[in-house]
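Need tokens for this chain, all 400 residues.
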Amino acid sequence: MTHERRLPEGFLWGASTAAHQIEGGNTNSDWWEFEHSGIPYVKEPSGDACDSYHRWREDMDLLAELGFTDYRFSIEWARIEPAPGEFSRAAIAHYRRMVEGARERGLRPMVTLHHFTAPRWFAQRGGWAAAGSDELFARYLTAAAPIFATDVAHVCTINEPNILAVMAAAQTALASGQPVDFAENPPAPDEATTDALIRAHARAVDTVKSHAPQTSTGWSVANLVCQPLPGAEDVAAAFRHPRVDLFLEAARGDDWLGVQAYTRTLIGPNGRLPVPEGAELTLMGWEYYPQALGHALRHSAAVTSGTPLIVTENGIATADDSRRIDYTTGALDALDAAMRDGIDVRGYFHWSALDNYEWGRYAPTFGLIAVDRETFVRTPKPSAAWLGAIGRTRVLPGEA
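Here are the structure tokens for all 400 residues:
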């Protein structure tokens, strides 16, 4: 006997973006400075990106018309506080209009308070590892409170803090002239940055709740889906703990945890292994492995001891949109199976709404919507209509 796989009432069904990757012209951020530093990792600067700072209404119109009910976007600290203690009323009003615009279009906004980028002045004083970084983050959130104090049910404090800590370690290595291979062998997270981010998250939750007690708060963690070969279980656990589990443990007791998964990391007796020979690769060089989402959900639920989960990012960088549909079908199958096994999942956000700036280059296209780099014309792909339709029906493709 078969039956429909129907999502629960109130299930979040959306797409995600990040301010620096789509807005353009984020000249006060640490990433803008990094993009123009001459480091070979950066193939091209972000420039105008998708010009979404001006075209956000069009982006939201498309998502709503396609059937999505939710939109996750971030606000840019470097715009709101371009100099220490100096806050831009215009920037705060801009992001508040985005919240109101989402609501007007029937989209529930999830607002991310920090998505990888910080003001230049914050980086120049030592970044997250410098003393008092959590206090400065809380000061920014207090100033930005009018953005999320009403009409925002979900706030994500920090996006992928574990990757932020890796980036801090990588920047230290690069500054000392050491080679860094982000794809094959990224460094372990910087310990001081890890500790600081965990403190900043707790401080951010308290700050948000003080201004918007009704708001549901959490943070999103990149689940690396560390899969051990036989006999390498202890090695995988030791590899995973500082890179994933420390950050999952910090989410215990939160209103929710954001789960972000794209592929898997194979672990052998000596540590991380390359992608299996002959495996299909995405434009990021990652293994095509849609089942990763299910593994990530189950592991996150086990470590956090029942914290509700929201998939805040899942997707694929590909030029073949049919593979995007196939990949997402597999990921949603894994999501459905996890929920049927009792995992408390409250929503799914696809990465990304738009083809955008992928941290050093534009070539990896994750978007449901294509963006012309010259004219900024938006063109929804077949995957956008296919995935958006699920938002209208709340019925997953296939049969249970």
